[in-house]
């Protein structure tokens, strides 16, 4: 157990985080994957920090898709919560123990004890058409809520469905998503996360018919200004920040290897003393 675990403080952070989903402007999250990325997000003035499962996995040498050992994932989460004063929400994919609710509950307890105040919990399997049944996903949400209550922490559960990836007509997918949203809400979910939607019309339909706050993953076909007008409560960017960072690093190391012009190493906005002072 995290020796710094403090129920009162964590509940204060959870309440602070919960309020961010019920304000005039949408909650925009830039996903972090380690301590330095979390501090960069904090220094940029964000109200909360979300983790990216892909980023955490890649940074620790594993493929995304629940391949990272849970003890390593938990260690990464605890390190992030240690270095920031902001609420931290964790992308825990499908919870790693989908076929064992008891072990799943133990994992949720460990996530909370790592200092996390919110989770993304998905019904999909690594961006495929395979989904948990709604009935089983409800059991997982209920279990997570029960464990959080036992811990005395009002955990924010962002219930994700990957139903958008199913090979169905769009109107049928939207109907299924809304059915899941109702079931997830009754089970104790606080927000509905629907990634992979690429058209505004579908988002409008979900926003008009969903009782939960709506979380949308940005796509290159969507505009943030449109999502704000629709009233989307939360906008996520997924693994895009770490991919942007990797792209910049890739270009820099390639330049060092292939040329004698290394000026890019010194044309940077952050400096050693500034970064060192963050910790």
Oligomer: single chain
CATH superfamily label: Phosphoenolpyruvate-binding domains
Whole-number radius of gyration? 19 Å
Low-confidence stretches: none
- The number of helices is 11
Task: Report the order of strands and helices.
Answer: HEHEHHEHEHEHEHEHEHH
CATH topology: TIM Barrel
Instruction: Please tally the β strands and state the result.
Output: 8
Strand order of the largest sheet: 1-8-7-6-5-4-3-2
Distance between the termini: 23 Å
Short description:
By secondary structure, this protein is α/β, with parallel strands linked by helices.
Outline the structure in words:
The two termini are 23 Å apart. The protein is of the alpha/beta class and 279 residues long. It has an 8-stranded parallel beta sheet. The protein has helices at 7-19, 35-43, 53-59, 70-83, 101-113, 134-151, 170-187, 200-209, 224-230, 240-258, 272-276, and strands spanning 27-28, 49-50, 88-91, 118-122, 156-160, 191-194, 214-217, 234-236. Helix 4 (70-83) runs parallel beside helix 5 (101-113) and helix 7 packs parallel to helix 8. The model has no long low-confidence stretch (mean pLDDT 96).
Task: Outline the secondary-structure elements.
Layout: H1 7-19, E1 27-28, H2 35-43, E2 49-50, H3 53-59, H4 70-83, E3 88-91, H5 101-113, E4 118-122, H6 134-151, E5 156-160, H7 170-187, E6 191-194, H8 200-209, E7 214-217, H9 224-230, E8 234-236, H10 240-258, H11 272-276
Parallel strand pairs: 1-8, 2-3, 3-4, 4-5, 5-6, 6-7, 7-8
């Amino acid at each position: 157990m995290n020796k710094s675990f403090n129920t009162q403080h964590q509940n204060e952070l959870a309440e602070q985080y919960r309020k961010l989903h019920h304000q005039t402007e949408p909650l925009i999250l830039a996903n972090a994957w380690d301590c330095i990325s979390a501090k960069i997000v904090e220094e940029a003035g964000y109200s909360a920090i979300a983790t990216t499962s892909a980023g955490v996995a890649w940074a620790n040498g594993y493929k995304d898709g629940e391949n990272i050992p849970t003890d390593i994932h938990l260690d990464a989460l605890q390190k992030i919560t240690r270095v920031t004063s902001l609420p931290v929400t964790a992308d825990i994919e499908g919870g790693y123990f989908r076929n064992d609710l008891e072990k799943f509950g133990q994992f949720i307890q460990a996530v909370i004890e790592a200092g996390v105040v919110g989770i993304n919990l998905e019904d999909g399997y690594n961006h495929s058409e395979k989904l948990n049944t709604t009935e089983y996903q409800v059991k997982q949400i209920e279990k997570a809520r029960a464990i959080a209550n036992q811990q005395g922490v009002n955990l924010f559960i962002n219930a994700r469905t990957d139903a958008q990836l199913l090979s169905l007509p769009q109107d049928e997918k939207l109907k299924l998503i809304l059915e899941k949203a109702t079931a997830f809400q009754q089970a104790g979910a606080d927000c509905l996360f629907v990634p992979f939607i690429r058209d505004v019309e579908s988002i409008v339909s979900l926003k008009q018919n969903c009782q939960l706050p709506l979380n949308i993953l940005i796509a290159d076909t969507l505009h943030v200004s449109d999502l704000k007008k629709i009233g989307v409560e939360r906008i996520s960017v997924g693994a895009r920040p770490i991919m942007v960072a990797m792209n910049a690093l890739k270009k820099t190391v390639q330049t060092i290897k292939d040329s004698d012009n290394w000026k890019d190493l010194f044309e940077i906005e952050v400096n050693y003393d500034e970064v060192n002072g963050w910790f």
